[in-house]
Amino acid sequence: MENTGIEYIASYARSRGFSVTMINAGLHGLSPDDIIQIIRLSRYRILGISVLHWTIKSSIQIAQASRRFHPDRYIILGGIEAALNAEYLLANFLFVDSICLGEGEKTVAELLSCFSGSRDWRSIKGLAYRVGESVVFNSPADLINPLDALPFPARDDIASVFDLGGPITVSTSRGCFGNCHFCPVRSFYRLSKGASWRGRSPMSVAKEIKFLHETYGADLFSFIDETVAGPGDKGMERLRELAAGIRDSHLNIDFFLTIRADQITKDGFRELKAVGLKKVEIGIESMAESQLHRYGKTAQVKDNHRALAILDALGIQSEIFMIPYDPEVTYSEIKKNFTFYRKRFSGKKARYDVSPLTMADYLYPYPGTRSRQLYESLGLLGHDYFVPFHALRPAVTKTQRVVGLFLAAIHQVFPMSYAGLGNLWINSARLPKRVYHEICLTSARFGKLLSDLTFWVYGITSSSRPLTAQRKRQISNRLGKFLALASKRHDQTRRIMRRYGSTEQKHPSPKLFPNHFSRQLYLYGRCKKRDFIKNSYKKTLEGDRLLPVLMSLLENEK
Ligand code: B12
Ligand code: SF4
Question: Which pTM value belongs to this model?
Answer without folding.
Answer: 0.94
